Amino acid sequence: MIQEQLRDRDIYDERVLEAMLAVDREVFVPDEIKDMGYDDAPLPTGRDQTISQPYIVAYMAQSLDLHPEDKVLEVGNGCGFNAALLSSLVLP
Predict the structure, then answer these.
(1) How many domains does the chain have?
(2) Residue 49 in contact with residue 77, Cβ under 8 Å?
(3) Is 52 a catalytic residue?
(4) Nearest to 40 by CA among 27, 24, 57
(5) CATH code at 33?
(6) What are the backbone dihedrals phi and psi of residue 29, each rounded to the nearest 5 degrees, phi first?
(7) 78 — pLDDT class (breaks 50, 70, 90)
């Protein structure tokens, strides 16, 4: 996932790439589709919502250019994957 879906598509921020490795996307999807947890596609969360594809999440995180001293407030995130990823970028 990191090489083909992210690096090869211009995700270059090493902190974002490390966060994408550290936060298990499969934890945020229903058990019956955990094997699809790292597919390059949005996935249903079982709550009439989807979890965004990994590239989109990484792109948004990279665009924010977050630093450990920054604060993030995310409202209405859905399954929590984005919030988990962003928190790993701003918490010391």
Answers:
(1) 1
(2) no
(3) yes
(4) 57
(5) 3.40.50.150
(6) -120, 160
(7) confident
User: How many of the other CB atoms lie within 10 Å of CB of 49?
Assistant: 12
Quote the pTM value. Answer: 0.89
- What's the whole-number mean pLDDT along residues 45-60? 90
Only one residue has tokens 């598509």, namely 9
The pLDDT value given to residue 46: 80
pLDDT level of residue 47 (50, 70, 90 thresholds): confident
According to the 3-state scheme, what is the secondary structure of the chain? CHHHHHHHHCCCCHHHHHHHHHCCHHHHCCHHHHHHCCCCCCEECCCCCEECCHHHHHHHHHHHCCCCCCCCCCCCCCCCHHHHHHHHHHCC
Give me the domain span that covers residue 14.
2-90
